[in-house]
Amino acid sequence: MLKIVEKTKIWFAISSIVIIVGLGFMFTRGLNFGIDFSGGTIIAVDMGSEFDKTKADDIVKTYDVNAVTTVAGGTEYDIKSNVITSDNYDQVFDELKTEFNLEDTALLSAESTGASIGSETKVKALIAIGVATLLMLLYIGIRFEFKFGLAAILALLHDVLITLAVYAIFYIPVNASFVAAMLTIIGYSINDTIVVFDRIRENVKKMRKSEISEVTNKSITQTITRSVFTVVTTLFTILSVLILVPSVRDFSLPLTIGIVSGCYSSIFIASPFWVILKNKKGKTA
C-alpha cells in the first residue's frame, strides 16, 4: 500500500515552490496577455501553396518579436500581434508579397481588436471560472460532504495556479483559448478527484476502526492505476494535437499542463488535504 498521506509536506512543498515562483514572475513581470486581452491585430494571408514558414516568420518578427504565427490548411498564414497595428500591417503584407510573389488578393483579412474588448473578456473569464467552481463545491458538498468539497476546490485552485505559474515563468501568451482550456481543466480535474473520493467514502464504511490516513492511502492505491492510465491515454491525444496541429496550440498547451497537474492534485493534494480537515474531528474513520 502506498504511503501518500505520510509525505503530505513533500507534496505540498513541491506545488508551493512552483506556485510561489510563478506568482513572483506574475507580480514582477506580469502575464503575457495576447491580443484577446490587450488588443492587437489578426492578419490572415493566403500563401497559395506550401511555403517556408521560417522565412515568413523572419519578416513578421522584425515588426513584433513576440508575434504568434500559425499555418492553417497548409497554405493560410495567420499572424497575431499586439504590436502590429492597422497603420503598419500593410507593410508586413507588402514584404510577404514581395518575398513569396503574392497577389494583392492574398490578404484574406486584417482585423484589429481593441483593449476594451480584452478587459471585458477578462471579467467574463473570471466570472465563468468562479461560477463553475461554486457549482462544483455545491455538488460535491451535497453528493459527498462539505470537507470533500473544500479539498476538491483546493485541488482545482492548485491546477489553475500551476498552469498560470508555467505561463508566467516562460512568458507564454495568454488568450481566449487559454480561458477555454482552464475551464476544461477544471472539469477534468474534478472528475478524477471524485473517483478517488468515492473510493475513500466506500472504504470509510468498510474500515471503521482504521486511521483516516490508512483509509486514504488504501483508496489512493486502489485508484492510482486508473488515474495514471486515464491521464496517459488522454495525453497521447492532446500531445498529438499540440505537435501536429499548431492552429489550436493555444488551447492544447495549457490543457496538457492542466491535465498533468490535475492528475497530480487528485492524488497528492486533494486527498491529503481532506485528511487534514478530517483529523480535526478525530483520528479514526
Helices and strands, in order, run as HHEHEEHEHHHHH
What Rg, in angstroms, do the CA atoms define?
A: 23 Å
Side by side, the strands of the main sheet go 2-3-1-4
The DSSP helix count reads 9
- Total number of strands: 4
Query: What is the CA-CA span between the terminal residues?
Result: 18 Å
What does this structure look like?
- The chain is α+β, with helices and mostly antiparallel strands.
- The protein has 9 helices and 4 strands, in the order ααβαββαβααααα.
- Strands 2-3-1-4 form a 4-stranded antiparallel beta sheet.
- It is elongated and about 80 Å long.
- The model has no long low-confidence stretch (mean pLDDT 87).
Features:
285 residues, 4-stranded antiparallel β-sheet, 9 helices, 4 strands
Reconstruct the topology from this structure.
Blueprint: H1 8-28, H2 35-38, E1 40-46, H3 53-61, E2 68-72, E3 76-81, H4 89-100, E4 107-113, H5 115-143, H6 146-169, H7 176-206, H8 212-244, H9 249-279
Helix pairs in contact: 1-6, 3-4, 5-6, 5-7, 6-7, 6-9, 7-8, 7-9, 8-9
Explain briefly what this protein structure is.
The chain is 68% helix and 9% strand. The chain has 285 residues and is of the alpha+beta class.
